[in-house]
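Hey all, quick one. A colleague (J.T.) asked me to put the magnesium ion job into the tracker so the inputs and the structure tokens live in one place instead of scattered across chat threads. No bug as far as I know, just bookkeeping. Sequence used:
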Amino acid sequence: MKLKWVEMREVHMRLLHPFETSFGREEEKVFLLLAVSNGETVGWGECAAMDAPLYNEETTAGAALVIRDHIVPRLWGDLEGPEDVYERLQPIRGNALAKAAVEEAVWDLFARCEGQSLAVALGAEREKVPVGVSLGIEEKLGDLLAAVEERLAEGYARIKVKIKPGWDVRIVEAIRERFGDIPLQVDANSCYTLSDLPMLRALDRFGLLLIEQPLAHDDIIDHARLQRELRTPICLDESIRSAEDARKAIEIGAMRVLNVKVGRLGGLAESRRAVEVCRDAGVGAWCGGMLESGVGRSINLAIQSLPGFTLPSDTSATSRYWEEDLTEPPVVVEPGGLVQVPNGAGLGVEIIPERLERRTFARERWLRP
Ligand code: OSB
Ligand code: MG
């Protein structure tokens, strides 16, 4: 298949609730949506880069430049399948979030052309997947406890709370005291060092499912040292950017669980390889999120339908993020914390043109030369 055109939009969407992590607070998502077409059918992808380089080094504006100047020019040749895109973009160093947005769109295009859901195109095994919810840092402990209560009532299969120095042992202790033995995990987004070992040991007493990315964003060595000190599994997010990274981290004992983010791993093909590495090694996996719109969220649901995903993911209901999403139908959480994996062609969701137009701030389209 040859692409006829590629279109990139900058989209702005206000979150229902501000989301605070150890690296910052987000109130509005400014992100890129990618569309690719063979002239008849359109495929969609979403770039997970954020406005500022605080999660990883990429930004929305930087990703737009890389997509325009370096990624799109490599897409015009014949594509035998969506797997070709990862190979085609391999010479470009880094820029995983930018590459993944385009790769996802090509996967969607191929799946739609074949009348297959993206999940089936990837090799789906499950029609429903368990999901949890990721709760940001609040000003008051009471607000966090109220949020936990509300989300448990909505049926989520586990709770994840963001932690940072001063908002860690205290909140985990309070949640355990109030809600008992619920499935609970924490995410530090790289805000500690090995000098925080006493605090991390204190966390180890609470029977958490996992501790996500406690140490530096680019480290596996210290994580391996830390894992030897803890019973709680360490889960890596920021540090793992490829299936090879996953293999190395597992080999030195730096992680027992992987947070699979399609963006951070540079696309769906590489995410699938990373999960295979984990499965072969008996290491757990789940799918993280980047506060995506319905486009990114249906991609996340498709990948987590594969074998190898062992824990609930961060793909929460649409109502947790947006007053009105770009897509229909919304993601809804059923009893038991289960979400239906879309089974229509491609992403299996419909993009509502008026909603997209209203939130599009810039648009560029390139035609095959
Ligand atoms: O580290 O998992 C993370 C959101 C933005 C950036 C990084 C992370 C997150 C989340 C939210 O935890 C996941 C979601 O609900 O989409
Ligand atoms: Mg994380």
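Adding what we noticed when we looked at it: The first helix runs from residue 60 to 71. The first strand starts at residue 5 and ends at 21.
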